[in-house]
Amino acid sequence: MRIDRSVVPARLRYGETFNAASWYIDRHVAEGRGEKVAIAQAGRAVTYAELAERVARAGNALLGLGLAAGDRVLMVVKDGPEFFFFFWGAIKAGIVPVPVSYLMRARDLAFIIADSECRAVVYSPEFAAEVVPGLAAARTGARGLALEAEGGVLDDLAAAAPELEAAPARPEDIAFWLYSSGTTGRPKGVPHRHRDMPATCEHYAVGILGLGEDDRCYSAAKLFFAYGLGNAMTFPLWVGGTAILDERRPTPATTFETIETLRPTAYFGVPTLYAAQLQALDPSRAAASAPARGTPAGQGSPDLGSLRLCVSAGEALPPELFRRWKAATGLEILDGIGSTEALHIFISNAPGHVKPGSTGRVVPGYEARVMNEDGTEAGPGEAGQLEIRGDSTTSGYWNRPELEGRTIVDGWLRTGDRYVRDAEGWFHYQGRGDDMIKVGGIWCSPFDIEARLMEHPSVLEAAVVGREDDHGLVKPEAHVVLSEPLRETAGAPSAADTLTAELVAHCQEGLPRYMYPRWIRFVAELPKTATGKIQRFRLRV
């Protein structure tokens, strides 16, 4: 799909100077939102006026601790207002924040501390057990700045001046970094410009989701992910809405509690969590018809009536999950694909325009193409590698020239995903490039087999990989997580054998004959990245 790149929303026509913190933070008080809640958390709220003051104090505190414009500061910080204060305070001061996963171990943190050449690490005290040894192992001299009120950087914030002039910056200057590791490999530094965040907000949050000042955004994905950073911070701040935060690990219980008590209008999840939430909503999956939006699906069901939008990314959304969620809640899930390199979603379904099983259409502001192995563009219905480019894509990786040369070519980002684009412009996921399986000389997508398996009421999740049979020929093998444990009955045929035969027949009836799984393994859980992507390579051993 080609777009007219000269048609740019007015708010994305930057001047020669543009510090993103000025737009995301400072303008709201001038526009009359000073007393409006910018951040809502259980037992805590921060208004836009308070946010602007604390961002200025955080920037001044970092400068007072010896950091200078252009320095990098790592952030190992839980989801809370302090993440906002120091992220935007750094940007306003001209310092480059680098949020990283607080799930990392000391060894990986040491690598990133050294790789990023950061001057300091701001961290929530809960993560000291990994951060402190990580700093020691890195041996770079970077300082540890604990977010503590006594003797920590919160003391410095409280003592710092409440006003700070935004450091001069151009739209093309680097504002922050993220780190991406994909499904394998060492983490990679991904710099992003001041202009990148507004591009995702205007093209996707406003252009596709229609977010506005009355919206309250809640993301199960945490702020250190590119997905969560947009969902729960840049999107609501861009439109003058409210960010809803929960520092707890997302589970059906915690997410339902947050939705009921803090009343978000937009909810951002991942397929794995939607599957678990569905199981909590309706373990029997026996609902015959969809209830009215916000009406409990059964005894004790949570009140989801505040929601008008549900979004999914991180892994392709199986169509059966879409159907079950809509039947249980009356709400569509808008599936999309994004990446750390592109900062957020660049292909998506849209409200009222959803094709279950499809990732959607190209988001305005981006271009996408499916490429053959010979470098030519694939036609409709032909599978190939997905490449994208647009207003928010990174210009390269930090210290990875070889990877950069393979991944970013003439502005096109090679995503590593295989896709098919149909004649109407809808994109259909076929799996990661190295996940595809050749069966009988024909390429097949593990996602298609997984989607078919999940249509069976006994299946909660599934992952399919290739495995050699006794003849050395590759065939599909399915790893299946069940909705309920198998129950064996004395004197009866094996429940596992019976269900295996049933699932194989189910696949044979709904897929081309060669695509059915030759082996089915029942497992308690599937290996995944922190963002919920299935790590199929770990199932191939």
Give an overview of the whole structure.
The chain is of the alpha/beta class. The longest helix is centred in the N-terminal third of the chain and has 17 residues, at 48-64. The chain has 14 helices and 25 strands. It folds into three domains: 18-191, Rossmann fold; 234-431, Rossmann fold; 434-539, 2-Layer Sandwich (GMP Synthetase, Chain A, domain 3), CATH 3.30.300. Residues 1-8 and 285-299 have low confidence and may be disordered. The protein has a nine-stranded mixed beta sheet, sandwiched between helices. The protein has helices spanning 20-30, 48-64, 81-93, 106-116, 128-138, 153-159, 196-206, 226-239, 252-262, 271-281, 319-329, 401-407, 446-454, 495-510, and strands at residues 37-41, 44-47, 72-76, 96-99, 120-123, 143-146, 174-180, 188-193, 216-219, 242-245, 266-269, 309-312, 333-338, 345-348, 361-362, 366-371, 383-390, 408-409, 412-421, 427-432, 437-439, 442-444, 459-468, 474-482, 519-522.
